[in-house]
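Appendix C: a fully annotated inverse folding record. The material below is reproduced so that readers can follow the format used throughout the book. The structure is listed first as tokens, followed by the designed sequence.
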């Protein structure tokens, strides 16, 4: 064995092997998805001994050059006086080191937007790049499964986040010899077989925890549930309208809040493509001067994707044009930045010495044209509204659904309304700063992409400066108004200072600002999602039947609150429960095995946490597969490169590998508890929700409804007064069952609710997961 330490004083690695304390074996501790640790002692027994310093680089390797440990000293060596030698006092120095990621752990992660729609490998590489660009070789970081959304906390170390990303993909990460690695657990698998001549029965300890699970309840956070549309009519005086439900509240933390205060574009926020050197930072603004003359070549793009879910406001900045320009500002692209795949953006084209501004939708310009004026500034804003808050399910893994074959992860289709506005500001005229902006586009894009590349600028040839782009989630309610016989227009809900017409001042009231009180007979529609607890219960009926005995129905239940991956919706909760039940199909096993390095299982040269272990020990009735969780190496015979390995292992039921529990104890209201599902029903038990249902006409006695889709063969629509009691055998609070897309319902009061769900003729009957809620508040 060879021990080297580089004290980072320009002398390079120094061989410290001769100073090793032979009375206490050095030992290495490797833990799954945690930094490895090294502990050893040095004896200052001869001249030339140099005391190692904090942060010194330390390596332990075999004679053949194979590394056992690489890392850095995490503290100053602690001296222990042993006595006097011939020339001076002799000390024993205790050294403590951690593996290579300690370099990353010593730095603070930037306060960045959540990682959206990335693979686990991409997310891990990004975090390392944010902290130490180019410091680690990341060739061994595999992409692995998708991560729908991951929030990075600067209060947590890199190793914490790396462990969570690995956990979410049922994988293991490692920082070793200047390289980062990420791979599925079990990539390297070894056999521990008692027929092996080197097998050590005395070194094996096995336990079988009494863990039987066949009834799993998974509890998540508050989720978006009912699809609600509230209908009001203005009386010319009222500015407050009472919503029928509490809208789902999105996290309103800013995704982008760029001030351009530095001298270069921030690489933790933006990705710059600039072959023509047209991009710079000056005067607290992004300066764009030129381009290649080609679409998509000169771009400044947000480092993360934008999820087209819920309600979002994108302020593309306060823009000053210094010459005629050609390009796109604030483009959302279904792929790389190219005009042909621009879902929505502001198209800038040359017009003499100035430029034209027009909405760019699905690759084509549309709507009114605004012509720039020299000396004016232009504020570009995009609002988008989607009834689907999350455009992708989370993915869950188990021993039966490993990396690459997870449960969930499906895309969620949705229509998205886009509203594009531009405000023309003439600096000498302050009133123009608060004048109503020009609406360039206000319409729905059907089946819009779930995630988009956001390019602040795509410069074909542009001359402009862009100050303070900003993006944040806003109130989820989409509010639209129309005067009689006129088209509906979108009213922005938010701060009056930001140009909004109203706000949701409390949890269930829509308040218009005084200057925007709806005139007499104005039709008002507020569309949003209701809210409730995400929860699901899934049972393995076959297992329960086997365990049933007399009054005991065989249920062996657990309640889990998911932390990583988060179970954001009821669908996620179902998939998480299925993953837990996957692992519960076999018996729980944990164990440890101690042996010399010469006799490692399967003739392995080394063993790391995350390796697989196939245990076949008939004398102990043990035949199972497990994953190595920890390895301790006592280097008891360093002269001969020999050590004693203590290998700890477990299968997924004994110690889950695909998820981490959060704090439990959440009270689930009875109305939020969905029906108990079997493993065969989970994922297939619900029909589509009637997301497009709307009221088309209201009279004093009836309302006309368009359900948004024709039911089709074997399907119908059930309508009730309340959001419970759905079922073919229950006629209480029933308003009707319909096989047509349009139908009439009775109106019995000024204010009335209608709850709609699709159902079929199967047995048991399937219904929509969530109701479509139509609420009317019209004078009789």
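Designed amino acids, in order:
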């Amino acid at each position: 064995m060879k021990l080297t330490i580089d004290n980072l004083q320009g002398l390079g690695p120094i061989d410290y092997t001769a100073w090793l304390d032979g009375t206490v074996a050095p030992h290495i501790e490797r833990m799954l998805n945690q930094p490895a640790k090294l502990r050893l002692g040095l004896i200052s027994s001869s001249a030339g001994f140099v005391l190692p310093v904090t942060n010194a680089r330390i390596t332990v390797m075999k004679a053949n050059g194979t590394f056992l440990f690489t890392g850095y000293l995490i503290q100053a060596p602690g001296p222990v006086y042993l006595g006097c030698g011939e020339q001076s006092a002799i000390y024993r120095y205790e050294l403590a080191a951690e593996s290579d990621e300690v370099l990353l752990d010593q730095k603070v992660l930037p306060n960045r937007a959540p990682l959206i729609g990335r693979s686990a490998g991409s997310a891990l590489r990004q975090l390392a790049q944010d902290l130490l660009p180019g410091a680690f070789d990341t060739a061994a970081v595999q992409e692995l499964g998708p991560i729908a959304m991951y929030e990075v906390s600067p209060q947590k170390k890199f190793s914490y986040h790396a462990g969570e990303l690995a956990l979410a993909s049922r994988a293991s990460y490692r920082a070793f010899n200047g390289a980062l690695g990420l791979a599925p657990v079990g990539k390297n698998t070894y056999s521990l077989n008692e027929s092996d001549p080197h097998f050590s029965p005395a070194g094996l300890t096995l336990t079988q925890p009494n863990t039987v699970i066949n009834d799993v309840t998974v509890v998540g956070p508050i989720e978006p549930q009912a699809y609600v549309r509230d209908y009001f009519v203005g009386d010319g005086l009222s500015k407050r309208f009472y919503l029928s439900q509490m809208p789902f509240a999105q996290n309103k933390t800013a995704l982008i809040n760029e001030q351009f205060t530095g001298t270069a574009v921030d690489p933790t926020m933006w990705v710059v493509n600039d072959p023509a050197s047209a991009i710079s930072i000056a005067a607290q603004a992004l300066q764009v001067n030129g381009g290649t003359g080609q679409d998509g070549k000169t771009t400044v793009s947000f480092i993360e994707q934008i999820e087209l879910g819920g309600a979002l406001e994108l302020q593309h900045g306060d823009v000053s044009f210094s010459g005629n320009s050609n390009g796109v500002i604030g483009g959302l692209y279904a792929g790389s930045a190219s005009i042909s795949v621009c879902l929505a953006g502001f198209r800038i084209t040359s017009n003499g010495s100035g430029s034209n501004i027009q909405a760019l939708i699905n690759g084509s310009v549309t709507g009114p044209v605004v012509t720039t004026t020299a000396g004016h500034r232009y504020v570009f804003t995009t609002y988008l509204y989607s009834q689907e808050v999350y455009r992708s399910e989370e993915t869950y893994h188990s021993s039966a659904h490993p990396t690459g074959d997870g449960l969930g992860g499906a895309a969620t289709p949705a229509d998205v309304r886009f509203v594009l506005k531009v405000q023309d500001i003439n600096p000498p005229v302050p009133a123009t700063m608060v004048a109503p902006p020009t609406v360039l586009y206000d319409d729905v894009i059907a089946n819009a992409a779930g995630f988009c590349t956001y390019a602040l600028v795509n410069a074909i040839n542009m001359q402009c400066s862009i100050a303070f782009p900003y993006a944040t989630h806003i109130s989820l309610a989409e509010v639209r108004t129309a005067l009689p016989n006129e088209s509906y227009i979108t009213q922005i809900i938010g701060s009056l200072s930001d140009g909004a017409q109203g706000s949701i001042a409390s949890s269930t009231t829509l308040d218009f600002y005084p200057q925007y009180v709806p005139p007499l007979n104005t039709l008002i529609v507020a569309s949003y999602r209701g809210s409730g607890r995400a929860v699901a219960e899934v049972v393995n009926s076959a297992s329960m039947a086997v365990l049933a005995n007399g009054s005991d129905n065989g249920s062996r239940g657990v309640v889990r609150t998911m932390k990583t991956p988060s179970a954001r919706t009821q669908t996620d909760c179902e998939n998480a429960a299925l993953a837990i039940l996957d692992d519960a199909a076999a018996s729980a096993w944990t164990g440890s095995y101690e042996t010399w390095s010469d006799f490692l299982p399967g003739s392995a040269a080394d063993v790391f946490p995350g390796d697989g272990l196939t245990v076949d020990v008939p004398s102990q009735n043990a035949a199972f597969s497990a994953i190595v969780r920890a390895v301790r190496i006592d280097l008891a015979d360093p002269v001969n490169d020999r050590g004693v390995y203590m290998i700890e292992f477990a299968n997924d039921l004994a110690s889950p590998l695909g998820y981490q529990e959060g704090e439990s104890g959440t009270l689930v209201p009875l109305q939020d508890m969905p029906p108990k599902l079997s493993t065969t029903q989970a994922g297939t038990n619900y029909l589509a929700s009637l997301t497009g249902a709307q009221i088309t006409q209201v009279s004093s006695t009836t309302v006309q409804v368009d359900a948004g889709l024709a039911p089709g063969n074997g399907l119908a629509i059930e309508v009730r007064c309340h959001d419970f009691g759905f079922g073919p055998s229950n006629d209480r609070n029933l308003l009707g069952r319909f096989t047509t897309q349009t139908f009439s319902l009775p109106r019995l009061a000024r204010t009335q609710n209608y709850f709609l769900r699709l159902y079929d003729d199967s047995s048991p009957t399937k219904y929509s997961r969530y109701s479509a809620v139509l609420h009317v508040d019209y004078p009789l």
